[in-house]
């Protein structure tokens, strides 16, 4: 994934260091969140186990289907690469102790971007499973050892970042039995090979998270079979954030099993907490517009607060936003949004006013970027940062007013003795070294002499 930034987008802005830190934290949060959406398949050869993560369908551009097999993967690969991908898979079955990677293109690809397929073994109870990861073929992310045309074997330490922190699991409710891949045992600090029940899993997680986990399980049905659950765990004195997501299989109203992935998302949670801290200090908010699915767009609490909205996390619609923006600034906001959807280049910093429910006016500055997919090169998300600059703006207005007053000249006429006092600004405006009545009247336009004479008398 790459971030597209319009030239000069963040130059000459009042946001300063606090803004740049906030922007960096927001980018890190977004990129980390995308990173944990790992595209993988877990399969056990010669068995019916072949689990696809949701991200696998997305990265291959395939429609999600029930019970997908490896053939669904192979059929999506370009003819010129299909044989070598199959060969690396079958080679791995024969030599499962190794780790392999192979690059390939998709049948549907309309661009030159390649994908990498990584393969490694994963213990799953008494069975040996195979994890197949797919990632964009970004050379800066991966250095491979030169190999033959069929496959390239990678160093173990270069694979670590791709394979650790994620595992596959299954839960059989009728038997109250859980099966974990060895990675989950490692992540949660549980002894390998232990036969697990849901109660055993519960002892590793925070009680309130276990209750939420059980609640979500109870709400699953044949029509609503997918799930996504976050849990917290203490492992060797460290706090670990976990994300379980997957699907469930049913026979009528009876759940046969749950299956899915468990991922260590601690890094993402840490970046989120850091981001919230920076937001509060810098009085900065942010929002994401998901260009592929507007319903998934998000807004931070700080952004909602500075616009007078309730803390829902949902990005307000353009009409909801315009309802709180000063009428004189609404056109500017609409133009920035229209420009975004026209060329997807983000927008330069601009200001607008928000009218709060109590009638007070807040001054907001906004700047936005577009994130493009490193796979297709197409824009898929907008990140915008807003800062409440009311205090700065009010000081600027006060200073401007003071400067305007400083430019005003004045005179004072004492009618008792007909003495006239004038300010330095009065003399400067009329280009006089000192006040002389005759010289002053020479400066006045003939059309204004009579009116001014009335005022002075």
Task: Write a concise synopsis of the structure shown.
With 457 residues, the protein is of the alpha+beta class. It has helices at residues 16-35, 54-60, 70-76, 79-94, 156-163, 182-188, 198-202, 207-219, 266-282, 301-306, 318-324, 330-343, 390-406, 424-429, 437-443, 446-456, and strands at 2-4, 39-43, 50-52, 100-104, 115-124, 127-136, 152-153, 166-172, 177-180, 227-235, 238-251, 254-264, 284-290, 298-299, 347-355, 361-372, 379-388, 411-414, 419-422.
Break the fold down into its secondary structure elements and pairings:
Layout: E1 2-4, H1 16-35, E2 39-43, E3 50-52, H2 54-60, H3 70-76, H4 79-94, E4 100-104, E5 115-124, E6 127-136, E7 152-153, H5 156-163, E8 166-172, E9 177-180, H6 182-188, H7 198-202, H8 207-219, E10 227-235, E11 238-251, E12 254-264, H9 266-282, E13 284-290, E14 298-299, H10 301-306, H11 318-324, H12 330-343, E15 347-355, E16 361-372, E17 379-388, H13 390-406, E18 411-414, E19 419-422, H14 424-429, H15 437-443, H16 446-456
Which terms summarize this structure?
alpha+beta, 457 residues, Beta-Lactamase, six-stranded antiparallel sheet, elongated
What does the model show?
The chain is of the alpha+beta class and 457 residues long. Among the domains are: 2-13 and 284-397, 2-Layer Sandwich (Beta-Lactamase), CATH 3.30.450; 37-159, 2-Layer Sandwich (Beta-Lactamase); 407-456, Beta-Lactamase (2-Layer Sandwich). 37% of the residues lie in helices and 29% in strands. The chain has 16 helices and 19 strands. The strands form four sheets. Strands 1, 13, 14, 15, 16 and 17 form a six-stranded antiparallel beta sheet that branches. A six-stranded antiparallel beta sheet has the order 3-2-6-5-4-7. A five-stranded antiparallel beta sheet has the order 9-8-12-11-10, with helices on both faces. A hairpin with a 6-residue loop joins strand 16 (361-372) and strand 17. Helix 1 packs antiparallel against helix 9 (266-282). The longest helix is centred in the N-terminal third of the chain and has 20 residues, at 16-35. It is elongated, with a radius of gyration of 33 Å. The N and C termini lie far apart (77 Å). Residues 1-13 and 138-160 have low confidence and may be disordered.
């Amino acid at each position: 994934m790459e971030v597209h930034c319009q030239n000069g987008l963040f130059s000459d802005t009042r946001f300063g260091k606090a803004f740049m830190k906030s922007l960096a934290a927001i980018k890190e949060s977004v990129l980390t969140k995308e990173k944990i959406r790992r595209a993988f398949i877990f399969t056990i050869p010669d068995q019916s186990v072949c689990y696809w993560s949701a991200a696998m369908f997305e990265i291959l551009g395939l429609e999600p289907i029930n019970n997908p097999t490896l053939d669904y993967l192979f059929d999506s690969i370009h003819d010129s690469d299909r044989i070598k991908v199959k060969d690396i898979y079958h080679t791995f079955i024969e030599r499962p102790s190794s780790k392999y990677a192979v690059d390939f293109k998709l049948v549907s690809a309309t661009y030159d971007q390649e994908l990498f397929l990584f393969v490694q073994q994963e213990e799953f109870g008494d069975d040996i499973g195979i994890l197949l990861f797919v990632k964009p073929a970004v050379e800066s992310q991966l250095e491979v050892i030169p190999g033959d045309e069929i496959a390239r074997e990678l160093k173990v330490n270069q694979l670590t970042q791709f394979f650790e922190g994620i595992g596959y699991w299954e839960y059989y409710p009728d038997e109250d039995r859980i099966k974990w891949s060895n990675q989950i045992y490692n992540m949660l600090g549980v002894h390998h090979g232990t036969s697990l029940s849901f109660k055993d899993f519960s002892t590793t997680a925070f009680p309130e998270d276990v209750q939420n986990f059980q609640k979500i399980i109870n709400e699953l049905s044949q029509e609503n079979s997918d799930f996504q659950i976050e849990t917290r765990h203490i492992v060797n004195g460290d706090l670990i954030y976990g994300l379980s997501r997957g699907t469930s299989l049913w026979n009528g109203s009876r759940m046969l099993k749950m299956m899915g992935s468990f991922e260590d998302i601690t890094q993402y949670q840490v970046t989120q907490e850091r981001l919230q801290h920076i937001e509060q200090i810098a009085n900065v908010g942010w929002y994401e517009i998901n260009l592929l699915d507007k319903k998934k767009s998000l807004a931070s609490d700080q952004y909602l607060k500075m616009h007078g909205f309730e803390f829902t996390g949902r990005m307000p619609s353009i009409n909801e936003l315009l309802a709180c923006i000063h009428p004189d600034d609404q056109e500017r906001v609409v133009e920035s949004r229209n420009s975004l959807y026209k060329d997807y280049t983000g927008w330069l910093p601009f200001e607008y006013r928000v009218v709060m429910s109590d009638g007070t006016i807040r001054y907001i500055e906004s700047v936005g970027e577009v994130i493009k997919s490193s796979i297709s090169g197409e824009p898929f998300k907008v990140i915008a940062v807003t800062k409440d600059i009311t205090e700065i703006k009010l000081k600027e207005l006060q200073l401007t007013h003071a400067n305007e007053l400083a430019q005003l000249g004045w005179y004072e006429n004492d009618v008792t003795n007909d003495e006239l006092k004038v300010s330095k600004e009065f003399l400067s405006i009329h280009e006089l070294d000192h006040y002389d009545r005759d010289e002053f009247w020479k400066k006045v336009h003939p059309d204004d002499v009579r009116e001014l004479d009335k005022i002075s008398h």
